[in-house]
Amino acid sequence: MPSLSRFAIDVPDTLLAQARAGRQDAFEQIYRWFERPVFTLALRICGDREEASEVLQDTMLKVFHHIGDYRGGSPFWGWLRQIAVNEALMRLRRSRKLDGEVAMGGDDLPDDHGPLPPAAADADAAMLQRALAALPVATRTVLWLYHAEGYTHDEIAAMTQRTASFSKSQLARGTRRLRALLQIEEPAHA
């Protein structure tokens, strides 16, 4: 099971019961809680704000229609996140971007979500975002799913309809390319 992300919000059972009963205010609360993490996840996978907005809407509609399928036992965010990842990957497949070498534009990065980090951290984050934007979509997707979302290579392979070896090679290549773009020296091997 993927590790908990920083967006692992505990959804009270009473709120879930109200949403299952069709209470619009309960679903609106769930939407507000998860809008940012779903959008951010979709943006990292799709590389486009408009596509990420579409993924957010599609994801939340699926959650609304299938909230009765969530049985608990695992974090709600894990269930919702899987829906979001699947929606983003389906969108990429439909547009055939996953097989191409399309890079995310630098202006497609989130800039209005959350408090501003200190100036040095902001500069580092901007540099990392530009470096990620220079990677092919498939590579960036694997890096994000592995490092930020905590999925295993087998899980990534299943989601992207590739092999675990493909995931591992994309991770290795992407890491080397990021180091080069960020001008980080490779660790010395003894």
Describe the structure.
It is built from eight helices and no strands. The two termini are 33 Å apart. Helix 1 crosses helix 2, helix 2 crosses helix 4 and helix 6 crosses helix 8. The N terminus is likely disordered. It is mostly helical and 190 residues long. The chain folds into two domains: 100 residues, Rna Polymerase Sigma Factor, Chain: A; 70 residues, Orthogonal Bundle (Arc Repressor Mutant, subunit A).
Secondary structure topology:
Layout: H1 13-20, H2 24-46, H3 49-66, H4 76-95, H5 119-133, H6 137-148, H7 153-160, H8 164-181
Helix pairs in contact: 1-2, 2-3, 2-4, 2-6, 3-4, 6-8, 7-8
In short:
With 190 residues, the protein is an all-alpha fold.
